[in-house]
Amino acid sequence: MALSRRSIWVFHLNTGSCNGCDIEILDALTPVHDVERLGIKLVASPRHADVALLTGPVTVKTLPMVVRALRAMPRPRAVLAIGACACGGGIWHYSYPHLGGFENLRKLLDSMGIVIDVVGYVPGCPARPEAIIDGIIKLVTRKEGGSR
Amino acid sequence: MGSAARVLETLVSSGIDRSRIEVLDDRTLLVEVPRNELRNVVATLRRLGARPRTMAACDDRSRDGVYRLLYVYAFDDLGTTTILSVALDPRKPVAPTVIDVDPALDWYELEAWDLMGIEFEGRKLRRLILPEDWPSNLHPLRKDVSIEEMKKLYKPLATWRGLEIGADSVALIPVGPYHPALHEPELFVLYLRGEKVVDIDYLGFMVHRGIEKLAESMTYDKVPFIAERICGICGYAHSVAYCQAVEHALRIEVPDRARYIRTLLLEVERIHSHLLWIGVACHLLGFDTGFMHTWRIREKVMVLAEKLTGSRKMYGINIVGGVRMDIDSDKLSYAEKVIEELRREVPRLISATISVPQVRKRLSGTGILEKSDATRYAVVGPTARGSGVPIDVRKDHPYAAYGELSFRVPTYSEGDNMARTMVRVEELEESFSIVEQTIDALRKVGGWIANEEYEIVPGRLGIGSVEAPRGEDIHVLITDRTTPYRWRVRAPTYQNLPALRAMLRDCDLADAPLTIASIDPCFSCTDRILILDLRTGGVTIRSVRKVVGG
Amino acid sequence: MIHRILALALKSGVATVRYPRQPPILTEEFRGFLVFDPTKCVGCGACTRVCPANAMNLEIRGNEIVVEYFAGRCILCHLCFYACPFGALVATTSFDRTTTNFEDLFDRVAHEGAACPSCGSIHATKRLIQFVDLVLKSEGIEIEDRLRLCPECRRIEALRALNAFRIGMEREGVEHGVE
């Protein structure tokens, strides 16, 4: 099953997650879910990536690097916020050393002039590999639909 | 004679005043130490063979008008914990440093300074956890600082100012924060001469989420959920450690069935974690076949966990006093079936992996941690057991149902990456057998799964320790009426990371990622920073160069 | 070496589950997202007290009291499902709340608020008060006017009553003393 005419390259951006969602992303890449059959490939540099898989509540210490990594991505930029932390701050949302999820980061990025074209949300704690696959499919459908 | 009494006698005979020692229970001693005697007492304990487990700084000003440091030491051979309590001036808390007599406490002092504002005389203090531009008088864990206030006072920087570390004749290689070999945002700086690593810096604490402060505003029943989310790999161990700390403080009896359920799930978690580690290690060696096969097998464990608890990773079934969900006999039979499959598949996988000469060669003789260094840095878990230090909380300080089960603690003396791998491989076998024993026990042991009739007494001290897949998790907890007063979490990687400096010295650059991985670092648990003085191999560093992307 | 690895591959066969073509590996024990039934919710707020992540929120907006389930923050512990006395939160095994629209992550129900007869502030939902009335009536308990007040006014009212009672007692005591 081809998801898109081109293969989708994803970059994993952990912004202070507990690892739960990160191991589920790895799980999606390994034999049982094997997302490479859908043309999804994990790459090592944000400059090669179509989609950033963002996990974690964006801690203040990772923030500068997260901004740099997202800025390095080519347009149209797509971000998939994975897990309860990235979607809404999760159980930490009240605490002090983080932004509390991607929505707040997006506001900050807007003020800096960094545009994120499409955003997908995969809630769950941790998000299941199947949900991550669903998320990428929805994101790509939206992205291709929008750019055509 | 109980083990606490024996330790008491040893302490008194080595010159500690009897009147200052309080016996909390038959495994725990509390010693009130005056500030000026702290260094002597720590040196004495280390000489007697005690192992530093953790150190907690508490803001006790509202309780008895002082700041307090709690140094937790263990006599593992006697299964006894000794807590040193040092009271400090409430206006200007200053303590003597002990890192020259006990180097394993380096990070603890930096953290106490950073989060609690306690100064240590005779050493250089730096920010460990908080960002460099954090307001200098704002110490989050002090009771008079509220989360709202901190949010008002600190606005995070979105631009990266560059890391100002440099060297003249030593090459620097930054690994991280976003690096293909890491799945977490952490930063290592390797100092190289030619192909050889001369030193390593760990700059991190990027996953600091303010857990300890947050828990002070949550009720006892909600904290297990937050404890579980300290780490997405060994989270259940943290949640058990928290519950045990509360149970120890409030003297809560946990029903037998709950103890067995906890044991079962802890071992399921260990199996998944060790398989994950073996897979990642194969991946770092470039042996992706092994990686894929291990993760294929590991998926069975994930499904088993979901079947037993309702969630693949965040089991979420612990409450103070027991567990909140029972495991019925259908689920037990399913678990038995999965373990049977694993017993067949894992040895086949391991023998195929070890049969690859490149894997064998790159594991043997690399990243050696000598036994003396292992004791000096007080490393824990498979890292310690790979270097011939036979410590295991399950045996030394039994908790849950481990006291009633029979298992072996695999120990290797080589101290290289192969030894640490083999420790984990053999532990897998032991875990299979523990799971089987627990299943048998759960078929026989009936009764309640939680003891919810307990009274909350403020001001009690409790310690909960669990052998997580990576080593000892230890939680120190002081109770308050509705929420914990102070909760100190110490994850195993916190103890193990400083030892990397010993392991990586004179090792090839190509072996560095594997060696870093061989301690199975879990940064979301640890989240700390190590800053060296910038003298590496006798070279004084003058020029300043931006390291990351500069 | 090679023969061992090949044997391993041959023995294990194909492991991939072709999701979304094939159904996912999902056990019936999975704690999935909650489905919020607005017809059953009365707005008592029991769920907001137990939720460790504050994914359940109760908010007064103008004349309405809004109960909100924020799936994006939900940690799937199901504590609210056990806490809800009306069965308005249904536990499912669904894991798919994936969306590209942030607002889709919220489930909201707006309840009509009941105004305090004394100060006019909104303090509880009409449905909750109706429910309490029903329970009290079935128990044969008479509903006092004081129960209609908001907690603040009720406190003042109670103090006032207590004060009147105390003054009455004192007067009685004084008269007793004169006698």
Question: What descriptors fit this protein?
Answer:
heterotrimer; A: 148 residues; alpha/beta; Rossmann fold; 5-stranded parallel β-sheet; 38% helix; B: 550 residues; alpha+beta; Beta Polymerase, domain 2; Cytochrome-c3 Hydrogenase, chain B; 2 domains; 5-stranded mixed β-sheet; 3-stranded antiparallel β-sheet; 20 helices; 17 strands; 18% strand; disordered C terminus
Largest sheet of chain A: 5 strands, parallel
Helix content of chain A: 25-40%
The CATH class assignment of the largest domain in chain B is Mainly Alpha
Which regions of chain B contain 5 or more consecutive residues with pLDDT less than 50? 162-168, 527-550
Question: What's the short version?
Answer:
The complex is a heterotrimer of chains A (148), B (550) and C (179). Chain B is α+β, with helices and mostly antiparallel strands.
Notes on the structure:
- The complex is a heterotrimer of chains A (148), B (550) and C (179).
- Helices cover 38% and strands 18% of the residues of chain A.
- By secondary structure, chain A is of the alpha/beta class.
- Chain A has one domain: Rossmann fold, CATH 3.40.50.
- Chain A is globular and about 40 Å long.
- Chain B has 20 helices and 17 strands.
- Chain B has helices at 3-13, 38-47, 61-64, 106-116, 147-153, 211-215, 223-228, 235-250, 256-284, 288-309, 329-354, 357-363, 371-376, 381-385, 393-396, 417-444, 492-496, 500-504, 512-518, 523-526, and strands at residues 21-25, 28-32, 51-60, 66-75, 80-88, 94-96, 119-121, 171-175, 187-193, 196-203, 318-319, 322-323, 461-468, 471-479, 484-490, 535-536, 539-540.
- A five-stranded mixed sheet of chain B has the order 1-2-5-4-3.
- In chain B, strand 14 (471-479) and strand 15 form a beta hairpin.
- In chain B, helix 9 (256-284) runs antiparallel to helix 19 (512-518).
- Chain B folds into two domains: 3-111, Beta Polymerase, domain 2 (2-Layer Sandwich), CATH 3.30.460.80; 211-497, Cytochrome-c3 Hydrogenase, chain B, CATH 1.10.645.10.
- Chain C has 179 residues and is of the alpha+beta class.
- Helix content of chain C is 35%, strand content 18%.
- Chain C is elongated and about 105 Å long.
